[in-house]
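Report of the visiting student (M.T.), summer placement. My assignment was to run the structure pipeline on a short list of targets and document each run. The first record concerns NHL repeat containing protein.
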Amino acid sequence: MTCTECTCAALTVGAVGWNCVTSNNTCQLISNYSASDFHWAKITNGSFRFTTFPPEPSTTTSMLTSTSTTSSSTSTTSTSTTTTAFTFQWNSTGNTVAGSAVGTSGTTANQLSEPYILKFDSSNALYISDSTNNRIQKWIIGSSNGTTVAGLATGVPGSSSNTLKLPVGLALDSLDNMYVSDKGNNRIMYWQSGASSGTLVAGTGSTGNANNQFNEPNVIERDSSTGTLYISDVNNHRIMRYLSNASSGTVVAGGNGAGTGFTQLNYPYGFTFDSSTNSLIIANYHSHNVVRWVIGASNWTILAGSTSGTSGSSSILLNQPVGVILDYYGNMYVADSGNHRIQFYLAGQSNGTTIAGRTGLSGTLPTLLHTPYSMILDSQFNLYVADTYNNRVQKFAYYSIT
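After the run finished, the structure tokens were exported:
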């Protein structure tokens, strides 16, 4: 059976995966996932594919395959185990899914102006913080226009309950209600799905360093299990935690002034909450690194970049990182804005691989980025990048290596 015939057979019977061995023209159909589950793997005599992504595996960088042989004369069993590295790869040419492909900014429904954070709602629509248009746009994938769901469609800034000023951070709950980091107003607004105005849930609207104030709040993350909000308070060089319905926050990372010390943060623009380790993964912008800060700890540990604040463009250095996310395998993605690239780090690794953009080169070509601020993955591992200074969102398709 050829690999094409094997593929057709798998799709016909609804198999979750199939293994085509070209050396002997055999086809193995997989009816369900085993407890150890797999991901794309590179093999030399055929190809193994999934129709959908399997559940989270127990390891993020390798797949174990065991074979046992039994000798009847000795009644002994020997087991050999081989390890195959996963292969993650994306198309290096991006496709514009929101905004202008040539980088033009504007306030019309098909334009963006410095998009910052990307989130998917429960229907897989893309929410974009259209920062210098002072609005949040909802974009159905495949549509040429977005819809304003918070702020004014005209892009006019303001400080009233129905306006925003430089919104950057964005979080959604399970009902698609929004939490918006309204940076220019130093406040966090709660915007019920479908509402025309928001409600203040954190901050006072004025700049300050008290526990109920912000100095340019940036990224916001929500712990869905508790409703707790985590907010990067950039110019106060700290991450704040607000318990559900609390009017004042608690410093959980930084708060010791700007610097490269292990107890300090240095303009922490972006971060993500890692629930598996109860820690924050923080993009430390002016220290040119990404660090882990365990909730309750008094210092960080390095994940990527330099501990001394040195910037660079090599695979082990960063230059003004802004956004950071983790996938459910524990791999890390960093928007390395000053290098105009997205860096990918296998779980536990500090040596990055460029998966979007070209190091040190900005532009509007489909293979280039200009100061990307954030990224997000869809359910099929396609990568969406907020190509901020190109005023667009780019999609880089995920594909397998066989």
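Residues 92-399 form a domain with the Neuraminidase fold (CATH 2.120.10.30). The chain has two domains: 3-63, 92-399. I thank the supervising group for their guidance throughout the placement.
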